[in-house]
């Protein structure tokens, strides 16, 4: 298995976090003993973050990924803390998925945010977008600034530790713009992320194609460019030794004329 390690059901919206004034830029080189705390309290990013380093291209048959560290450690620490305060995760029936007509718990927490009126249907459940929180909007702006791509929706997944995980799937829902990448921002514990070609899954697979394995670091951005989600499944497997939480944001572009 190739391993790339780079350093360095419809629910009502329950989150009405008030908008805050734009964040001041966090300067990592500063002495943090003084008023950094005060700056932090002014909230997360005006979209002015350090430049992503270094961009790395990862390619295989039908797979096209770009990976970089988008945020410095200080920026990423701060963003994680703000998301822990702001994001309201689905609970009760809203947190379950439909599989073969039955409701199932998922091994992580989820929330959906985005532009007004948007819904996104996956695993048999339609999720409506809560209004952007200031931190999610600032992260989205940073992603747009560095990629030139616009996004109108984000799926937030929170993994409390390495027991929480996500099974193999593709993000190929019909309401997603097939020309747009999915931009995945990771904050918190670094986790393995595995891509498997659709023809090389299971014991009786038609072809032998090596899976592609990455480690998604704190503050990283992974771009899953077309046609990756047509040909490759991805998963975040259990990693029992990981004891710390992780938040993942997948920014998506939903086609307005295909929304339900
Ligand atoms: O947490 C992750 O990195 C995976 C998220 C994911 O696969 C998805 O949102 O489709």
UniProtKB/TrEMBL annotation:
PROSITE patterns: FE2OG_OXY
EC number, UniProt record: 1.14.11.33
Claim: DNA repair is one of the keywords in the record: yes
InterPro entries: AlkB-like (IPR027450), AlkB-like_sf (IPR037151), ALKBH2 (IPR032852), Oxoglu/Fe-dep_dioxygenase_dom (IPR005123)
Pfam families the record matches: 2OG-FeII_Oxy_2
Chief place where the protein resides: nucleus
Enzyme type, top EC level: oxidoreductase
Keyword Mitochondrion part of the UniProt annotation: no
Ligand binding (2-oxoglutarate): 157, 159, 169, 234, 246, 250, 252
Region (Disordered): 1-47
Name assigned to this protein: DNA oxidative demethylase ALKBH2
Species in which this protein is naturally found: Salarias fasciatus (Jewelled blenny)
């Amino acid at each position: 298995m190739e391993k790339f390690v780079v350093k360095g059901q419809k629910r009502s919206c329950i989150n009405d976090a008030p908008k805050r004034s734009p964040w001041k830029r966090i300067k990592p080189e500063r002495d943090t003993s003084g008023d950094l705390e005060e700056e932090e309290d002014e909230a997360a990013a005006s979209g002015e973050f350090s430049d992503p380093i270094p961009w790395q291209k990862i390619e295989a048959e039908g797979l096209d990924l770009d990976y970089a560290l988008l945020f410095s450690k200080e920026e990423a620490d701060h963003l994680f803390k703000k998301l822990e305060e702001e994001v309201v995760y689905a609970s009760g029936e809203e947190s379950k998925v439909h599989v073969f007509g039955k409701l199932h718990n998922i091994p992580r927490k989820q929330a959906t945010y985005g532009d007004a009126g948007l819904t996104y249907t996956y695993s048999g459940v339609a999720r409506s977008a809560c209004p952007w929180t200031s931190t999610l909007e600032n992260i989205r702006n940073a992603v747009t600034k560095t990629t030139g791509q616009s996004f109108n929706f984000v799926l937030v997944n929170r993994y409390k530790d390495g027991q929480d995980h996500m099974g193999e799937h593709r993000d190929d829902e019909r309401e997603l713009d097939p020309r747009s990448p999915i931009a995945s921002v990771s904050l918190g514990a670094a986790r393995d992320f595995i891509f498997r070609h659709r023809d090389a899954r299971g014991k009786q697979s038609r072809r032998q194609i090596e899976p592609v394995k990455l480690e998604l670091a704190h503050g990283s951005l992974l771009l899953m460019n077309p046609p990756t989600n047509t040909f490759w499944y991805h998963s975040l497997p259990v990693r029992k030794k990981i004891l710390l939480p992780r938040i993942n944001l997948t920014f998506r572009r939903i086609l307005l004329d295909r929304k339900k």
